[in-house]
Design a protein that fits this description.
The chain has 173 residues and is α+β, with helices and mostly antiparallel strands. The protein contains six helices and eight strands, in the order βαββββαββααααβ. It is globular, with a radius of gyration of 17 Å.
């Protein structure tokens, strides 16, 4: 955990060529807003790829506007969750791309703590937990006693939130 302003935090990420998720929560009333807001900055090899502030009701501020809001807030308590350099970051994959292809394998790319998942519906938590890159969409659906069609909207949503990626694996070997 780091307690730094956004510019210093980004400089550190650049100097160490980090790849992963830099995140924090902005407590209610910090800037007159009456709800907690989540900040997520996606970094690849030290370069900022996306900056998003999401309110509890789902409103988003992105890009330069989000960055400038963070500058005005000063020091925040940041957490950095590294991601393996060799994996393709989810923010490079279109979130609205169809999931139903030959054999998609969802894989978590962000560690989400238990307290952060409490508000998620049960099926979301289960799908996220099973998305380890070794189970196909069909296998996850079978394990949850449902159809792949029932979990695909959840996977799309998790991918849109940049928590998972969908990988294709050749199983004909």
């Amino acid at each position: 955990m780091y307690s730094l302003d956004i510019d210093t935090m980004i400089q550190i990420m650049q100097e160490h060529r980090q790849t992963g998720l830099l995140h924090t929560n902005i407590p209610p009333r910090t800037t007159g807003v009456h709800e907690t807001r989540r900040v997520e900055i996606f970094i690849e090899s030290g370069a900022v790829k996306a900056c998003v502030i999401t309110s509890e009701n789902g409103r988003k501020v992105e890009g330069e506007q989000a960055y400038q809001a963070l500058v005005r807030l000063g020091r925040l308590r940041w957490t950095f969750t590294p991601q393996m350099q060799s994996s393709k970051p989810s923010w490079l994959v279109p979130s609205d791309a169809p999931i139903t292809t030959s054999l998609p394998f969802p894989r978590r790319i962000v560690n989400v703590e238990q307290h952060q998942m409490r508000s998620w519906p049960r099926l979301y938590r289960l799908v996220f937990a099973l998305a380890d890159g070794t189970k196909s969409v069909e296998k996850i659906a079978t394990m949850l006693s449902t159809t792949s069609g029932a979990i695909e909207p959840i996977l799309r949503d998790l991918r849109k939130k940049q928590l998972i990626i969908i990988e294709q694996k050749d199983t004909s070997e």
